[in-house]
Amino acid sequence: MLRRSLFSAIAPANGTSTPADSGTLRSYVGALVDVGSWKLVLVLLLAVCVTLTEGVGLLLLVPLLQVVGLDMGGGAVGRIGGFITSTFDAVGARPTLISVLGLYVLVISARAFASSWQTVVAAAIAHEFKVHLRQRLYRAIVNTDWLFFSRSRSSDFTHALTAECDRVGRATRQLLRLIPEVGVAAVYVLVAVFLSPTVSALAFVSAAGLMLLLRGKMQATRAGMKEASRATKGLYAAANEQLSGTKTIKSYGAEERNVAIFSRFTERIAQLYIDAARHGAAASAWLNIGMVLVLSLVVYVSIEILAAPASQLLLLLYLFAMITRMLTRVQTHYHEFI
């Protein structure tokens, strides 16, 4: 029943929710949109700015390789180089080392400012949403019927108002961090596909297979975090009940037994979080190892089978290295959100 009260507090005033995960997610998103309003739009616009500047900075690597004397060839890299050169010509400039480096610094600086602004706005949304959730939940608790209130443990209310609301706030921050990172990863993927569809398809199929192999470890991490959350709720109840009965405990001289019971609770919760962290770390480690194997496969196929030019190979190596890093970060934020 307390869980239903929490769901009703998350849901907008004119909506309904169900205990199902999909219904909870819809209620969460609806409440977040209701609270965030224009700030969410600003976060999305800043995410677009981050994505676009990342793409422009990536494309500027091509003329940078040109001005240092690397042959671009006539393939996809050559077409990108020709497009950027024509853009420089259109504004009456010539792509020299200083001009390309200067433009690259400006673009990356704009990306940094947009990313910083987006982080601040996302943090504001997360904290405002947490305040909104706590207020609605507290109002729901205060206005609940007496029978439900008297049969419920006060520690359950305290846990929901503190730890669980904090979890929702952290999940919101992770979700808002996930948005620009997915956009940046999409830019890298699109450029990689443009440079070499064959190599990109091979890499993505291999990466998809790797994700399927790691699915069990990812599910174990989520299950461990859920169990740890339930155990933390029990810890709140145990602490509240034992502290409330301190006088009785002292009168019977049962302090050490009381401490032992509480210690077992805390040790169990610590072990649950350690196990969840172990599963998450193992999944990340195997993901990185697998991505290195995929990258090695890309290099081998590009050199031995497709005879890719050096400029294209360098860009593909950079792209897949960045995609690997971005996928790891996206995976981390996704699991923290879930």
TrEMBL record:
One cellular component (GO) term of this entry: plasma membrane
InterPro entries given in the database record: ABC1_TM_dom, ABC1_TM_sf, Type_1_exporter
Protein name as catalogued: ABC transmembrane type-1 domain-containing protein
Coiled coil: none
Membrane topology of the entry: Multi-pass membrane protein
TM spans (from-to): 38-62, 96-114, 185-214, 285-303, 309-328
Annotated ABC transmembrane type-1 domain residues: 41-338
Any one Gene Ontology molecular-function term assigned to this protein's record: ATP binding
Species whose genome carries this gene: uncultured Chloroflexia bacterium
Main subcellular localisation: membrane
Subcellular location: Cell membrane
Pfam family membership, one: ABC_membrane
Keywords annotated in UniProt: Membrane, Transmembrane, Transmembrane helix
